[in-house]
Amino acid sequence: MITPLIKKFEWFVHLSDDDRRLLRAMASGGVQHALPGEDIVREGDHPVFVYLVLDGWAHRYKVLEDGRRQIISFFLPGDLCDLNIFLLKEMDHSIGALTSLSYLRVTRQVMDTLVEFSPRIRSALWWDTLVSAAIQREWTVNLGQRSAIERVSHLICELFIRTRMVGLGDDQTFPFPVIQADLAEATGMTTVHVNRVLQELRSRDLILFRRKRLRILDIEGLTRLALFNDNYLHLGREGAHMDADDRPAVGMG
Amino acid sequence: MITPLIKKFEWFVHLSDDDRRLLRAMASGGVQHALPGEDIVREGDHPVFVYLVLDGWAHRYKVLEDGRRQIISFFLPGDLCDLNIFLLKEMDHSIGALTSLSYLRVTRQVMDTLVEFSPRIRSALWWDTLVSAAIQREWTVNLGQRSAIERVSHLICELFIRTRMVGLGDDQTFPFPVIQADLAEATGMTTVHVNRVLQELRSRDLILFRRKRLRILDIEGLTRLALFNDNYLHLGREGAHMDADDRPAVGMG
DNA sequence: CAGCCAATGTAACAAATGTGAACAAACTTC
DNA sequence: GAAGTTTGTTCACATTTGTTACATTGGCTG
């Protein structure tokens, strides 16, 4: 059930059986569900839980006073929201389900137990936090410097790898439950322009989009177009137990 | 010497004399210096230290293959770069001095000591990490949704508050050692357009820029124009020792 | 299978921002 | 204080992206 989290962590550390058992204890509070479009947390709420996505996609977003909306990040299965968020008095953003969603609400106590009893989980959690921060920085670069088509391509490359990291999708296709309006809000452009860009990507035989799945026809070309360099995802380093061969097959920058 | 850090932390927790002593121990490795434009860390380096800015400004940035450069964040006095960065094998970005800079290189051991011996410092460090992440998210919103003039205004509002948080600047003016080219790289626009926008802000009597200091003539107006809401900076909450009156005088959203 | 609604696609036009180059002003350095 | 360098300013024009409004498609639901 929390397999995606375990899969992700194992890109970085080798977990013991005890570690896995500990992680499964995160589910002690029971699995929660949300429908597409439903909010899990709202800006202004007092933070109580750390959330862990089990199945489906969610997104973090902010809304400006005049209604403009920005998607700040996507949560895939295995993704955790901010550790120690309890320290803050109020949420500064909202989290909502994109698809129908299963997730866990993890209490402070459970989180404390995890880090107290396993140094590997502790460092995996820190690694995850650092990678999340790196992803947010890369989004800054994406929005600041890349053109519309590069931005969309870059996002696709990132989501492809992140999907594969948690054991979803295959060599060429992966679940992509994101509509053009979402892509627009994530990349800071209009839906009209997202549409233009996607058509361009299709006409260049880079991607193919069907039934909520994205097929990558030419990862090399897409990577080049996006100026994508996966170093910020900090894959399979240090204590990871997998071989280089098992790592997502996307060109390094 | 590490006053800015202490000042910042005290927006969140009340530090004991022992805490302050502990924090001063961060300087045990000696103060480092860098000249404007000099890099402190480069993308690809193996991370060894946590850095703490003592005096002057620095910036985090990334360069794309084709030379485009994005400033990802500014480091003011009292700002720390990523805790536990040692877990990663390679830096995914660079850090450089904007002005002449004094800073500390803090070892893993010293960081561990801090969190081991003071629960207050531990939570202040976490708070700082959470706020840094929130700032990065806000930059995502800024670049994704706000227009050029809103972006620049928003950045100015943020830097004004952050400056005041660490005890620099006064009610209306603060040190602003950022040239238009830097502003351009931080806001994802060209210097020409930054120039146009700054002229507009001046002609609307919102700001005034002289000798590396920025004077804010109408914080209310600037805040409104920028759609700025300081909630993401998570000021003066929970265990903070200061009264609401002492908090930076910027309109809440 | 009809009917519906969300999602995607199109087109003409408008606005914001980028480009490249030249020049001016402000600082540094000697 | 003269020369040189960095920073700021301006201009004419190009390009990208946004806006508005509407058409089409596709998947559900009854």
Would you give an account of this structure?
2 copies of one chain form a homodimer. Chain A has 8 helices and 10 strands. Chain A is 39% helix and 19% strand. The two termini of chain A are 33 Å apart. The interface between A and B is large, with 50 and 50 residues. The first copy, chain A, binds a DNA duplex (30 and 30 nucleotides) through helix 7.
Helix-strand makeup class of chain A: alpha+beta
Kindly provide the radius of gyration of chain A, computed on alpha-carbon positions and rounded to a whole number of angstroms: 18 Å
Order of helices and strands of chain A: HHEEEEEEEHHHEHHEEH
The geometry of chain A reads as globular
Q: Tell me the distance between the termini of chain A.
A: 33 Å
List the chains of the largest interface with their residue counts: A-B, 50 and 50 residues
Strand content bin of chain A: 15-25%
| Number of helical stretches of at least 4 residues of chain A | 8
Mean pLDDT of chain A: 91
Give helix % range of chain A.
25-40%
- Report the oligomer: homodimer
The main sheet of chain A comes to:
4 strands, antiparallel
Strand order, largest beta sheet of chain A: 2-6-4-5
**What's the count of strands of chain A?**
10
Low-confidence stretches of chain A: 239-253
Quick gist of this model?
2 copies of one chain form a homodimer. Chain A has 253 residues and is α+β, with helices and mostly antiparallel strands.
